[in-house]
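User: Protein folding is very new to me. Would you mind checking the protein record under this note? It all follows right here:
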Amino acid sequence: MADLTKPPALKAAVVFPEIINQYLCVSAENRLAEAVGLALAINLNVVWQQIVKLRNVKPATLFGQGILEKFKADILAAGAELLIVDSSLSPIQQRNLEKFFNLKVIDRTALILEIFGERAHTSEGKLQVELAHLSYQRSRLVRSWTHLERQRGGAGFLGGPGETQIELDRRLIDEKIVRIKKDLEKVRRTRQIQRQARQRVPYPVVALVGYTNAGKSSLFNRLTDSSVLAQDMLFATLDTALRKLELPSGRTVILSDTVGFISDLPHELIMAFRATLEEVLEADIIVHVRDASNVETREQQREVLKVLAGLGLDNLKEDLRYIEVLNKIDLVPSAKRAVMAQKEKALVISALTGEGCAEFKKLLDERLAVGYEVYAFSVAAHNGRLQAWIYTHTEVLSVTNDEDKVLFKVRLATSAAAKLKKYLASQEQN
């Protein structure tokens, strides 16, 4: 029986303008499919979709008059209530297209922001989304636009008039931006304190990154027996999740699941989500999860690396902290798996079946062992100060009490070993 309390899905038309001689990181067909996937991710009913080739971009409307006339009839015949242009539209182009079609029109940035507005659940995530919305809207504010009126929290694009109509002028937007940035700065400071606390434990941090829908959350759940939302949809995960993971050596790490990347990720979102992505910047190991079943996995790889480079992580492929895994290998014919692993120089895994996950954890152990050493030594039982230093600055593997001594077996960074030896030597002299 139909749910009468749930409003019918908004009918949407999706168009991807393929500009001749302009570089595309993915094919036009996949770009359109991705845009449709984004629309479906917020339960829009896509009733029409089209790739439109453009030789020239019209400053007023993006598309030429002939093209507009050609597909206007199709869009209206399909009953579309919303037009999604999978490109960046200027405020003038957006307004003119709305007038021409007599429909609400949004571009790629607005669509992604709308998804983020629905998916953010933590207070930090909501702040980041609101900041991104406001930064985007600041240059587009026209008081008569109905989609600046909303029913839900955040500054959405698809909500209609509600209880609290919002008419934001630039001064009010700027005031809100300043306030949100202050709140996010508090979040950054809190995260820094949390990272310092983890360093004192200390647990190495392993951050999962990758293109949206590559299976990061599924892998996260498989490894940590968690229940983070993992669905076959774009941007299923927005809020960072952290869980402990025990490796074969007995070492404990913190596994971090982060927001997925996408081609042409809006600048507003990169800046707004910097606080979340700082988990990646500070990670001991960065695991790039790729979708082995996607024919454009290399193009997606380049997009992820480009975003990470923009955050200051250059030449990651040469960094020992960086690991690539090819997920969803269960969707790849068995004859191609070994060839793909060798060609891509990556570990093949399946978060769904568990294939390769044991080898993945062993690889994490090996990488984390680089630059670390294991030491066994004794400390006088009465030397509480030195024991406190050991618990704070090393990974304690075992502790045995032996009369007036405490026997430690620890793992610590080579850089900290000299300090430990100095402390132990001073203990012997005393």
About this structure: The domain at 372-429 is CATH 3.30.70 (Alpha-Beta Plaits). The chain is about 45% helix and 20% strand. The first strand starts at residue 11 and ends at 19.
